[in-house]
Amino acid sequence: MPEGWLLIFDNADHGVDLNKYIPRCNHGNILITSRDMQILPLSSLDHPFPTLPDLNEQEAIELLLKSSHEEDSHETHVDIVNALGCQALAVVTAGTYVFQHPMCQLRDYLEVFKQKHDALLRYPLKTMASYELTIMAAFRLSYDFLSPPAQALLQICSLFHHLSIPAKLFDHGGSVRLEEVWKLPGEDEEAVISMTDGLRAFMARFTNEADIKASINELARLSLASYSIDELSISFHPIVHHCAQETIVGHNLADVAMFLLSYATPGYGELSNEEYQFQRKLLPHAHHLCDQEASLPAVYICHKVASIFFSRR
């Protein structure tokens, strides 16, 4: 075999064993692209795998203008690319949609995306290879490879704010005590039972803390989430967050998400500094759920969520 060869593995995802395809020699070059962190051991110490970041803000704006065939930059373009997380496929889809819909200008796209994001995630881009590429299809390549517990965790996380979701939210689900929920006057026992049944169905996928950690690791390994060891929290790219919401069918997880949030809330009255700091971390997630008009079917939840907004030390 000549020494000047290049072997390319593009989108080497989903646990494909590449070793059997790699020539046994000490020369040549191999280029691998993948979302699967398990291939990292294949890299050499001299040539480690680089992580490809999203576009920066200016690059994303330039791509947006190019794909929409517009020339003049506008302050709303910054809002658009930031809402899309500067993700290249999402930015090109936005520009192409505007170019192909004369009644929709770039300054209108953000509002259109908020109203019709489910359709825009599936908006097809024609490629040179004669197939249609959509944001949702690209997301599905990784989502469909997840285990059922990891899919469930991704779905429930998609109902919170996409940044800094405390892993502690999922520590208590298996130990929910109905008597704690029913103790408030005026509680609707039937609504509470229905809600906790949904919670237990979700938590049945996680028998212990190790199962939660395994699912978080699985999401991170496929580049669907990032985990902060310092904050003990999970974060998602906004486009992954939107796509994950679109996979929720047949049942309403919003009540379960609201219950997890309220059950993790330290409580009422005076809080220790540690409790107060944790409760403040829950505030963007309470805002996000309330903005989505998630229901508050139990008096217990109403009180607990209210305490997030009015907590004090």
Automatic annotation (TrEMBL):
Annotated protein name in UniProt: NB-ARC domain-containing protein
Superkingdom of the source species: Eukaryota
Lineage: Eukaryota, Fungi, Dikarya, Basidiomycota, Agaricomycotina
